[in-house]
Amino acid sequence: MEGTERKVKILVTKPGLDGHDRGAKxxxxxLRDAGFEVIYTGLHQSLDQIVHAAMEEDVDAIGISILSGxxxxxxxxxxxxxxxxxxxxxxxxxxxxxxxxxxxELEKAGVKKVFLPGTPLEEIIDWVKENVKxxxxxx
Amino acid sequence: xxxxxEVIKGNPRAAARIMRLIEDDVPEAREALKKLYPYTGKxxxxxxxxxxGAGKSSLVDRLVEEFRKQGKxxxxxxVDPTSPFSGGAIxxxxxxxxxHSTDPEVFIKSLATRGHLGGLSKATDDIIQVMDAxxxxxxxxxxxGVGQDEVDIVKTADTTMVVTVPGLGDDIQAIKAGILEIAxxxxxxxxxxxxxxxxxxxxxxxxxxxxxREDGWKPPILKVSATxxxxxxxxxxxxxxxRKFLETSGRFESYRKxxxxxxxxxxxxxxxxxxxxxxxxxxxxxxxxxxDMFSKRKDPYSVIEKLRCQCxxxxxxx
Lengths: 139, 318
Ligand SMILES: Nc1nc2c(ncn2[C@@H]2O[C@H](COP(=O)(O)OP(=O)(O)OP(=O)(O)O)[C@@H](O)[C@H]2O)c(=O)[nH]1
Ligand SMILES: [Mg+2]
What we know:
heterodimer; A: alpha/beta; Rossmann fold; B: alpha/beta; 2 domains; 46% helix; 13% strand; binds guanosine-5'-triphosphate
């Protein structure tokens, strides 16, 4: 019963209808190799599906890959939906094709971090290590 | 506490919280399990095992669909391996279970083995308890795809399905090695492939040659295509037949008794170990013993024989 440390759980997912999930997979693997438990849902996820998965798996963070240009809709909407579910303490971060100019507004909406294309994996891992901890035990 | 009542009402968010605490083995988890215990023991538990990529998750997705048509509430526990190098894991079974990913009556939980051998994770049985207390009628457990020694599932499940696929060559041999005895149902998945009939025949032959089971159950072999949705109805019928068999033969109940014993023995082992260890570690006895064994002044066998413990079950409050 004693001595086990809590593990950080991260949902890695890709909303929308666009493209491939190569980037998301690479990040998922890097997170695993850094010792995180990654729940990987694959492509074409609706926001409902993402919130539902985050709730069932009780994750500490959600990493989202977006290539479609829908980020200004996806991130704020998702964050609101998480709030409605009482999942406000889930860290949301993302990457993909997101113009630098949009980042301040996304951060204001509650996105913890946006990684620009070409960000080294180590940088992402270090950021996750620093910023994502197992969510508090609440009863 | 509110959270427990919510779980019993079937609230998925409350259940998810408690499952996470169980996985992380925090003390609050045991408190929750104590309170949920009276509400457990009702669900029908199906185990699904088989080699990596055999289509276990795809099959689970189909079975869930059928159970939902019958109006049953379903829980799914899907176990994937933890990397022995990093301690991390990628849990990818949800990818193939998209059909139910927003159904409020279907709860899907992914688990990493976290170093536990045998195809499940240490938390699996307790997570099943939570789903059971939530009111799930059916709980489907997908083991890691190792193919040889996922034997834990037999103790956990009422009905164990072994999934195999054509074209694995030696895989039939692997099945022979130990999985043959644990299957209540065989599924040859990817039945859309031409070699599937051959695999079915090989399995039939192997089953014919093996000794009849002592419980008298004859495991059926089902040809299925999970992706095309073929053979699913037959699989559901076979499951139902096995469930009826368990009920009429009294095994449904006796399995539950076995599980109670199994769970209790596991807890007992833990408890005794910690009780004895903390006693031994008082006054440095343990270090001294280790030193004596290391220097061969004592041997561990004699030390264990000399161990005496007083065991008292405090029943005052019951
Ligand atoms: N042709 C064919 N492919 C299938 C069938 N069922 C599953 N697959 C494919 O086989 C691959 C693995 O399927 P999964 O359902 O993830 O298999 P699994 O046994 O759960 O895999 P692990 O959990 O990784 O061990 C996927 O690409 C599926 O699309 C089937 O009936 N026919
Ligand atoms: Mg799977």
